[in-house]
Amino acid sequence: MSPTQWDFPVELCCRPMAFVTLTGLDVVYNAVHRAVWDAFCANRRADRVPISFKVLPGDHEYPKCRPKRTSYEWYIPKGILKTGWMNKHLNLVPALVVVFYELDWDEPQWKEKQSECATRVEIVRQSLQGRNTKVAVVLIQKKTPLPPGEDVTASERAAALCNACELSGKSLFVLPHTDHLVGYIIRLENAFYEHAQTYYYTEIRRVKSHKEFLNKTTHQLLFVRHQFKIAFFSELKQDTQNALKNYRTAYNLVHELRAHETNILEIKTMAGFINYKICRLCFQHNTPLDAIAQFRKHIDLCKKKIGSAELSFEHAAWMSKQFQAFGDLFDEAIKLGLTAIQTQNPGFYYQQAAYYAQERKQLAKTLCSHDFSSLKTGEHYQQCYLKNGSKNSLHASVTYPNPDPLETQTGVLDFYGQRSWRQGILSFDLSDPEKEKVGILAIQLKERSVVHSEIIITLLSNAVAQFKKYKCPRMKSHLMVQMGEEYYYAKDYTKALKLLDYVMCDYRSEGWWTLLTSILTTALKCSYLMAQLKDYITYSLELLGRASTLKDDQKSRIEKNLINVLMELYSVLVQNESPDPEPDCDVLAVKTAQKLWSDRVSLAGSNVFTIGVQDFVPFVQCKAKFHAPSFHVDVPVRFDIYLKADCPHPIRFSKLCVSFNNQEYNQFCVIEEATKASEVLENLTQGKMCLVPGKTRKFLFKFVAKTEDVGKKIEITSVDLVLGHETGRCVVLNWQGGGGDAASSQEALQASRSFKRRPKLPDNELHWDSIVIQASTMIISRVPNISVHLRHDPPALTNEMYCLVVTVESHEKTRIRDVKLTAGLKPGQDANLTQKTHVSLHGTELCDESYPALLTDIPVGDLHPGEQLEKMLYVRCGTVGSRMFLVYVSYLINTTIEDKEIVCKCHKDETVTIETVFPFDVAVKFVSTKFEHLERVYADIPFLLMTDLLSASPWALTIVSSELQLAPSMTPVDQLESQVDKVVLQTGESASECFCLRCPSVGNVEGGVATGHYIISWKRTSAVGSVPVISTAITLPHVIVENIPLHVNADLPSFGRVRESLPVKYHLQNKTNLVQDVEISVEPSDAFMFSGLKQIRLRILPGTEQEMLYNFYPLMAGYQQLPSLNVNLLRFPHFTNQLLRRFIPTSIFVKPQGRLVDDNSIAAA
Amino acid sequence: MAVCVAVIAKENYPLYIRSIPTENELKFHYMVHTSLDVVDEKISAMGKALVDQRELYLGLLYPTEDYKVYGYVTNSKVKFVMVVDSSNTALRDNEIRSMFRKLHNSYTDVMCNPFYNPGDHIQSRAFDSMVTSMMIQVC
C-alpha cells in the first residue's frame, strides 16, 4: 500500500542516527575506494556505532543555512514543525564531512598535494557556510605507518597539513590500505562518532539558546518546535534518556497550545508524532508500562478533539492510526524479547484501530454522500466511481474543485498537519469561507476513494494473529466474525462466507444462539447474493431451527424463500421463483444475485443436496426409537421415527427413509409421497407427509428380520428426510444414528435433570423431550416350544459310565425338523475337567481318552407335535468334583410372519451339575502272621497284606472280582485268589481280603519296596448286564524291608493238653554270610515242665539251620505262657528277644486233662 | 452503573444476559463471550489447589476503550460477567465486589427454587428486578 495521509513519515519512524558524509571517494572506478566504502557500509552489525554514511562528491551543495535571527520580537511562526526538518537532519545536513585524500607521508610532490587537499577542504567548508558541521580529513596511504613518534617526517608533515587545511590534529586521520582494513575503519568511525556527538551537542545548545528570546503569547508554537528539535538532536546523539525527557516536555507543550477548529489537525498530528516517539523510546528502554500509560494519556487527551464536524472521519482515521502505530511498536518490542500477556497484548490496539477504522467508514459514508442528492441517478455515479476510483471521473456528475485546493506549489505541505489551502495562516477566523468549503469538499471527495474495508480487514487480521498467540480463542472468533462482516460490506462474499462458516461452529458448540443467529443472518445474505444453493439452504435450515433467535416474521419469510427454492424446478406453476432478497442488501448486488439465481434454473447439475445435520441445528428434529431393546426373529421389528418441525409454517416432505447397518432392511423403511406407503401403519391420509410446527409426528415402521441376523445387533445408521422433490431440487437432511443434532445432547441432559411435570397432552401425542433415542436392537432367536428333561442317578462314581437320559418332547404345532443335540461338559469350566471327562452315546464299552468332553450336533431326526424322544448319554468322569453338563437341543421350524415364510432355528438348553465321588475307599495294611501290625517287614519272612474295601456309594455296588498284581519283588506264599467275588456292598458296608506274601531280601531301598496293585472290578448293582465292568486299580503302599541276622520259627501244635507231652521244635536260621555264635537259653515257666537243652552255646554256619527240640509238659490248663526262648547273638547285639517274640509264639492254649477214660466209666455207670 | 450483566453456565453458554436496551445488544453479547477467554485463563491459573479458599471475584477481566469488564466465578464454575462504562469512575473495586455478591445471592435464590432446573435459562422475576436495580442504581 502506498503511504496515505495518516501514515507516519518514514523519518519519524526510523531510528535517528548520526549523519556523516564521505567525500573524495570514487566508489565506481577506484577499487581501493570501493573497498573502503564497503567496509563502512556493508554488513553493519548492531555492535557498530550508529552512523548513517553517505558518499557525496566533494563539491556537493549542502542545504543553505538561513541567516541567524538576532531577535524574535517581530517573528511570528507559521506552524509547529516544517515537514522537511527531520529529513534535513537525517539525510541532508551532515554532522561531519570527511574528506578522503590519497597521500603518503613520503609523497615526493608533497607541496602540491598538500595544497590540493587544502583546497578540497575549503570547498567543503564553503558549502557548509554557517553550519557547525565538522570537517575531517582521512589520508589513504599505501604504506603501513610506523608507530607514532618514530616517523619524524610524518609528524612534521601532518602538522603542516593541519595547518594548511585549518584543521585540528584530532580531525586528521590516516587510513593505511593494508590487510586490516575493517579494523582501521572501525577505529575511524568511532572517531567520527565522537565528532558527530560533539556536533549534535552544539546543535542542542544552539536551539536551547533561542529559548530566552521567546515569549509565551506569540511564540507558543516555537516552544513546541524547539523542544522537539532538542529531543530529536538528542536522539541523533543517541542520548535517548534526554530525548525522552525532552519529548515529554514537548508533548505537554503541544497540549498547552490554544486549539481551534483550524489548527486542531496540526496539534493532533504533532501530538501523535511526539507520542509515537515517547512510546518508542519507552519500549526501547524496556519500560513498556510507561509506554502504555503514555499512550492511554495521549488517547484520553485527544479522544475528544474531533475538530471540524464535516471532517470527523479524519479524526477517526487519526485515532485508528494512533492505535495501529502503538500496536506495531508493541509487537516490535515483543519480537525483541518483551513478554506480553493475555489481557495486554498488541491485539487490543489493532482491534481498537479497526474499530476506529470502522467508525471512519461510517462517518465517511454519512458525510461524503451528501453531494449526491443532486445527482439524478446515484447508481450511475456509483458505478462510474467504482470503475475509475479517481477524481477525474467525477466531472461527469459532480465537480471536483478546480483548481484543486489540495494541491500545493511544491506538492507537499510546509508544516505538518496544516490545510493546503491556508498554509501558514494562524488566524482562527476564516478569511475565505468559500475556499474553506471547497477544501472540505475536496477532502470529502477524496475520502470516498479510500477502500475502508481493506484497512479494517488488515487491522482485524493483525488483531486475530495476536489474539491467537495469547490464548483468546473467543476474541479471535469475534474478530473473524467482524472480518467476515467487513468482507460482506466489501462485497467479497466468498471470503466473508469462508470466515463466517469457520467460526460458526464455535458459537454453536458453546450455545450462544443470539450470536450464532446474527452470524447466520449475514452468512445467509452472502449465500443469497452469490446464489450458493447449498449454503443458502443450510443457513436457512438453521435460521428456522430452534437455535435461531429470529422473530417469527423473519422466520416465515425465510421459510417461504426456502420452499420457493426447493419447489422451483418441481412445479411448473411456480415460475422462476428465486428467493426474495434478504433485507438490507446492496441494491446493486441484489440485481446481480437475481440474475445468478435465474441462471441456476437453466444450469443442469446436481440439485440434490445432502446435508449432515450433526454439525448444526436444523429446524426439523428427529428421533428414532426401537420399541424394544431386542426382538425375537419370528416377530416383526418395530420402531418409530419421531419428527418435529420448529419452523413457523407447516412443511411438507417428500420422503423419509431409514438406513441400517444391514442395508437389506433399508428398502422396507421408506415413506414416499407417491407410493401408497403400505409400511406405514398409521395411515393418516390427510397431511401424512406434512409436519406441523411444534407437533411431534410419529412414523411407525416394521420389518421382518432376517434369520441370519439372529444374535446380531441391528442399528439405525442414518435417517434421511427429503424436503423438496427428488425429481427436481431437494435437500436431504441426514441424521447420523438415531437422530440428534448439534444441540440435542445438551437438551437431552437438561430434560433428564428436569423435575418439571409436563402438561398433559391429548392421546397419541408425545412430549418431544420425553422421547429417548434407541437406535439399535438385538435380534434374538424364536422362543423354543419343546421341553427337555434329564433323568439320572447322581452322584456319578469315578470312572463309571454314568448314564444320563435326555427326553425331548415337542410342544410345537408343526413338525420340527433337524433336531440336534449337543451334550456334554459345559464349555468354559476348568480345563482339567475337559481332560478328565468323556462323553459317549454307547454305554456298552468304556470310553477312553479319545472321547470328547462335549458331543456336538448329534442328529436325532424330526419330531411331530407332541412326540417325544429319549437319548441315553454316558459320561465318564475321571476325577471327583462337581461338573456342569449342558444339554442343548436345536431344531428348525417353519413359521409365517407377516405373510412371509421363514425357517426359524430354535434352541433350548438345560444344564445340570453332577457331583462325582469315589465309589469306595480302600484301606491296606501289613500285618505279621500273628496279625500284629507291622511298621516294616523282614526279608524272607512271610507277612500278611490286608485290604479293606468300604463302599462310599449311595447306590449298591457289585464287586465283580478283585485281583492282586504283585510287584516283582514280592512273592506270594500261597494262592492269590480273590475272596470277594460277586460280593454286593450296600452303602457303608465293607469287604476285606487277606493275602500272605513274602519279600525276599533286597538291599537297602530308599522309600521302601513297591508292593504292587490291587485291582477291583466293579459295577453298580442296578446296572444292566451290558454295562461294562469298571476296573479300579489301587496302588498298594510301599513297604520297608529289613534284613535280620537270625530267623527263628517254631513248630508246635496248635494246643496242648495238661500232662501230655508237647513237642516244640525251634528252627534257627542263619540269614547272614557269617558263622554265628548263638547263646540260647530257655527260662522255666510255672505252667510247664520241659526237657531239652536249657542253656547252650552253639555255632550256626551261614545259610544253615539249627534245630532245637524241646518237650514241654503243661501243668495247668488255660492260656499259658510258654517257657521263653532267649537268643543272644554275640555278633549282633541289637538282635533282641523283643524282635524274637514277633516270630515265635509266646503262649499256647492248654486244654484240661482228657477224660476219655472217665467218659467210658460214666457211661458204664 | 452496570451496562450489562450476564450469567454464564459452567459449560460456557449464557444462562442470563441483559444489557441496557438503548445500546447494541449484540455488542454486549460478544463482549461477554470474549471475556470468557480471560475467565477461562484465570480459572485454570488458579489451579485445583485452594479450591475452598480461593477468591470468587476475578477482578477486571479486560479494559476496552469504552467499557470495563469484570468477572466472578462461583464454586460450581458458573460465571458472572458485568460490563461497566469506562467513564464511570465512581465504581471502585469494592463496589463491584459487593455487586457481584448481591448477584451471587440472588442467583443462589434462583437455584433454590425447586421449579428451576439447573442449566436452564434464568427466568426469575426476582432476579430480573435485582439486575435492573444494579443497572440503574447510580446512572
From TrEMBL, chain A:
Family per record: Belongs to the TRAPPC11 family.
Entry's Gene Ontology cellular component terms: Golgi apparatus
Annotated protein name in UniProt: Trafficking protein particle complex subunit 11
Domain Trafficking protein particle complex subunit: 263-545
Subcellular location: Golgi apparatus, cis-Golgi network
Major site of localization recorded for this protein: Golgi
A Pfam family the protein falls into: Gryzun-like
Keywords: ER-Golgi transport, Golgi apparatus, Transport
Domain Trafficking protein particle complex subunit 11 C-terminal span(s) in chain numbering: 1069-1127
A GO biological process held by the record: vesicle-mediated transport
InterPro entries: TPC11, TRAPPC11_C
Function text: Involved in endoplasmic reticulum to Golgi apparatus trafficking at a very early stage.
From TrEMBL, chain B:
Transmembrane segments: none
Keyword Transport: yes
Chief localization: cytoplasm
Location in the cell: Cytoplasm, Perinuclear region; Endoplasmic reticulum; Golgi apparatus
InterPro entries hit by this protein: Longin-like_dom_sf (IPR011012), Sedlin (IPR006722), TRAPPC2L (IPR044760)
GO terms of biological process kind: endoplasmic reticulum to Golgi vesicle-mediated transport
GO cellular component: endoplasmic reticulum; Golgi apparatus; perinuclear region of cytoplasm
Alphabetical UniProt keywords: Cytoplasm, Endoplasmic reticulum, ER-Golgi transport, Golgi apparatus, Transport
Any Pfam family matching the protein: Sedlin_N
PANTHER family: TRAFFICKING PROTEIN PARTICLE COMPLEX SUBUNIT 2 (PTHR12403)
Recorded family membership: Belongs to the TRAPP small subunits family. Sedlin subfamily.
Protein name: Trafficking protein particle complex subunit 2-like protein
